[in-house]
Amino acid sequence: MPYRKIAVLFLALGFAFAAAGMVAGQAKDEKPAEKKEPEKPLTKAEFDDLMEKEVKDAWNKLKINDKKKMGEKAAEAADVIAAAAAKVLRYDGKVLKGENKDKLAREQKDFKDWVDAMKKHAEEYAKHARKGDWTKAAASREKINETCGACHDVYEPPKEK
Ligand code: HEC
């Protein structure tokens, strides 16, 4: 084999190893980024959108399809509410009154409990609706409704008008 060809071959091999090394290095570098950063709080506008366009919209769809006994559609709406729970925990508002006034709402036990309850009852509702077990679904639906109200009573600031 002519030297030229051998040289080219080694050069190519060298590049291949260098490239492989870079890929491996990158893969290593990416690892720490995978570690879950604590989720950023939502801005007021983002949270209002979450409540108005995601949660309330899904809640309305749940009620409409529940009435029509459209199990799968009602369950899908409940899935949206359950999935929104993680984002509700990123609320950046404060406690409005009482001994914890001005502390972060999302760090209060009752706030977190209501988020958990909303998620749990929405998941249960979805399960019952998919099976067409409308008696159990009605009980879960009522509990979702109570959670919205309970949390708003304490944490929703009065509307400025
Ligand atoms: C864990 C607490 C919590 C739960 C549970 C909750 N919300 Fe809310 N929601 C809030 C807070 C806090 C606000 C006020 C946000 C603001 O004005 O900054 C709010 C505001 C709203 C608003 C008004 C949004 C706006 O544009 O001002 C709607 C509509 C709403 N929620 C719907 C719902 C529905 C429907 C449910 C139940 C399926 C629900 N929420 C469950 C905390 C909650």
Cofactors and ligands: heme C
CATH architecture of the largest domain: Up-down Bundle
Count of DSSP helices? 5
What is the terminal separation in angstroms?
87 Å
The secondary-structure class comes to: mainly alpha
Helix content: over 70%
**Largest sheet, strands/sense/barrel:** none
Rg, Cα atoms, Å: 26 Å
Order of helices and strands: HHHHH
* CATH fold call of the largest domain: Four Helix Bundle (Hemerythrin (Met), subunit A)
Please tell me what the overall shape is.
elongated
**What is the CATH class name of the largest domain?**
Mainly Alpha
Give the mean pLDDT.
89
Task: Identify low-pLDDT runs.
Answer: none
Strand proportion, as a percent range, falls in under 5%
What is the total number of structural domains? 2
Q: What is the total tally of β strands?
A: 0
The quaternary structure here is single chain
